[in-house]
Design a protein that fits this description.
The protein is an all-alpha fold. 64% of the residues lie in helices and 2% in strands. It is built from twelve helices and two strands, in the order H-H-E-H-E-H-H-H-H-H-H-H-H-H.
Length: 285
Amino acid sequence: MGGRLLRAWVEKPLLSKEKIEARLAAVEALERCKKELGVRTILGVSNISFGLPCRAYLNTIFLTLALDAGLDLAIMDPASPEMMAAISAYAVLSGRDRQCAAYIDRYAGRVPAASTLARMMESVPKSAPPQGAYGALLKAVEQGLRGESAALTHQLLEKVPPLTVVDEALIPALDAVGGKYERGQLFLPQLLQAASAAQSAFEEIRAAMAKDGSAAADKGRIVLATVKGDVHDKLVPVVCVLSPVLSWVLQWALLKYCDYTMSFELLLFNAAFTVIGLLLLRKGK
């Protein structure tokens, strides 16, 4: 019995050309159902790997293809970490998980158990919660709470000078956020939210400084420089717009009068027109 099965598998592989085409056809059918009929779709995604080792690898890729084709509901094992990771990652890349909130909530505390990173994370001491008069503002900035950061800054400015708020609260908060990001305790969406919260706090500080006149203090001179020979002219955007227009006119003329259609040559002419225009601007200086 075992010998007959083995010979059957050798004569007809599990992933024959016909089976691979059938699986691709399933993905294509999903896409057409979504685009042409506008219906919701459901599909069992684990049968594709039947009889193969490490089925989760194949199932994960097929699930991703199906999701991209418009799959709404997958019949799968919800206890499979690979499959759930594929769904969470796809939600981020497709824009369904805004700000990566669900992904971060699910995976922020997880690292590969056998990796060096796991051992590094275990050795990092946990930072103590912020204390003192500025603790609430530090926490608001770290959590990316824009409105709350502005409100707390406004309250502090009634009692504390603006630069003191910057030195004692905002700069330490940004340092803490940057340190957590480097250690893998915070992630890019949270970093951007913290920057936005800090920006709202700085806007309150600028308003307070402008109100009491401290923003008008002399801070010294600022020297600006540019590269010699570099092209800085208001006509540069005009050249960039005219170059493809001239290229299109040239293509139209060649097609009408010479019956010739340009392909990659169009890019060469576009580049040539751009370079010639910039050289003329440079010589005109």
